[in-house]
Write a structure and sequence with these properties.
The chain has twelve helices and 15 strands. It has 462 residues and is mainly alpha-helical. Strands 1-6-7 form a three-stranded antiparallel sheet. Strands 5-4-8 form a three-stranded antiparallel sheet.
Length: 462
């Protein structure tokens, strides 16, 4: 009967109350109540397949659980015939019965023992006094340096995030639009035109000016689109990761804490309190928390969420190349699905297989020249149609569909430093004052798209 989150003294006291003897066994955090040492002989005797069994029967497990709960309360677990059972809730007795039934372990005593089980109390020990619990240790903050980059601001905070996030941006439409804009930009730079209009023959002058006007629209729209999409990705991934780290810190075998982790908000998923933090400390320290040894859950946190935090942090490194950042995060996945399913800012595509096919097609060649159906913003679709009319690109073979797409307002992130503690956290008044000096920004990262074509001749108008 292995146990966790309970002391040797508490196990010994509960065993005495049940007429059994406690025998320490194994490493710290693991102990056993030996059924062979039942002081009353047959009180909790058991059989398996008709033969005498070495361990307590279901009545013994129930009596021990009752005595231990009086001493400890909740929060501990025990393993009954290889089934781990939590001390919380009213169903523990039925779970014990189920575990014994599956193990084919039966009671080997008369029905009178049921009265014995119900009468077990720690008070029967008389003068025994459980040892006072040791004071909770003060946790040690994780030593993780903040990310370098400029502060991120916006218009959304804890007071207005509900209405602001009522629109959720479709990841499939946004991603396809971003990639098609890059294709158009590359096509624009592949067409060389004279620098001066005076060098253009009169018969081609109208076409020349139409192409320059189209390129100006493309450059302006592409620049704004990349920046807003990258920022929406940053806000979403940071909020989603904070929700996950709070969920994991509420239990599930976590080995870290931080001063406050309420999962309040719309549907329990958005946490307005997170907006007070600075993502430059929030993201790397959440990644460290997710990688902390001791988290035994496969459903919450873990390495996949740590990688989501790492990827979101690249926003600051690639601040001058938002398209590079967006391209890096469009296929992130958490423990159960594509990552954009938390109910705010972004939403997963309705057809994930088609989305994955679109991403595969992008890796191998042109989306416009492929067969995958594409959902594009109205502005992007108009740019494609005009590019065909102006003979800048060939008519696409892909099936193009107009789909509404608008950026979501940005989160106004605060300056509060996020502190994560290994073990118990320090008192709330031990938190440092908000950071007032911005870290040194990363050096400018050059865009991966270059050229000297018509896009270069059409700088965006401010």
């Amino acid at each position: 009967m292995p146990f966790t989150n309970v002391t040797v003294e508490q196990l010994d006291a509960a065993a005495k109350a049940c007429g059994m003897k406690f025998v320490p066994k194994g490493t710290l955090g693991l102990a056993t109540v030996d059924g062979y040492l039942n002081a009353k002989g047959t009180q909790y005797a058991s059989t398996k397949d008709g033969l005498k069994h070495y361990g307590p029967c279901v009545c013994g497990f129930k009596a021990f659980r009752k005595a231990l709960n009086e001493l400890v309360g909740g929060g501990w677990t025990m393993t009954v015939h290889k089934h781990k059972i939590s001390s919380w809730g009213y169903t523990m007795g039925s779970k014990i019965e189920s575990a014994c039934y599956k193990a084919k372990v039966q009671c080997a005593h008369g029905p009178a023992s049921a009265a014995i089980t119900s009468d077990v109390h720690v008070s029967d020990l008389g003068t025994y006094t459980p040892p006072a619990p040791e004071p909770e240790p003060v946790g040690v903050p994780f030593d993780v340096a903040p990310l370098l980059g400029e502060p991120v601001t916006g218009t959304v905070d804890a007071s207005n995030y509900g209405p602001a996030f009522s629109n959720r941006r479709c990841v499939s439409t946004a991603t396809a639009t971003m990639y098609v804009l890059e294709e158009l930009y590359a096509a624009a730079n592949a067409i060389q035109l004279p620098t001066l209009a005076s060098d253009v023959p009169d018969s081609q002058l109208a076409d020349y000016h139409a192409r320059i006007a189209w390129a100006r629209r493309l450059v302006t729209y592409r620049r704004g689109y990349g920046r807003t999409l990258a920022r929406n990705f940053l806000d979403y991934l940071t909020l989603a990761s904070y929700s996950e780290v709070c969920h994991e810190a509420s239990g599930y075998g976590s080995r870290y804490t931080f001063p406050a982790h309420s999962r309040s908000g719309a549907g329990g998923r958005i946490i307005p309190g997170s907006m007070a933090y600075d993502p430059r400390t929030l993201l790397p320290r959440m990644a460290k928390a997710f990688r902390t040894k001791g988290n035994k859950s496969t459903s919450y946190g873990g390495e996949k969420w740590a990688k989501i935090c790492d990827s979101a942090g690249l926003y600051f490194k690639w601040a001058d190349a938002p398209g590079v950042f967006a391209d890096h995060v469009v296929d992130l996945r958490h423990n159960g699905n594509l990552a954009f399913d938390k109910g705010f800012i972004l939403r997963n595509p309705s057809d994930e297989s088609a989305y994955n096919a679109m991403l595969d097609a992008k890796r191998t060649g042109s989306l416009l020249a492929g067969r995958a159906p594409l959902l594009l913003s109205p502005e992007c679709l108009a740019l494609v149609e005009d590019a065909v009319r102006l003979r800048i690109i060939a008519r696409p073979t892909a099936r193009l569909t107009e789909h509404a797409d608008a950026p979501v307002p940005f989160v106004n992130w605060g300056a509060k430093e996020f502190i994560v503690y290994k073990g118990a956290h320090a008192p709330a008044d031990a938190e440092p004052a908000p950071e007032t000096t911005a870290p040194t920004p990363w050096a400018v990262v050059a865009s991966q798209y270059g050229g000297s074509g018509i896009a270069t001749l059409a700088p965006p108008r401010e």
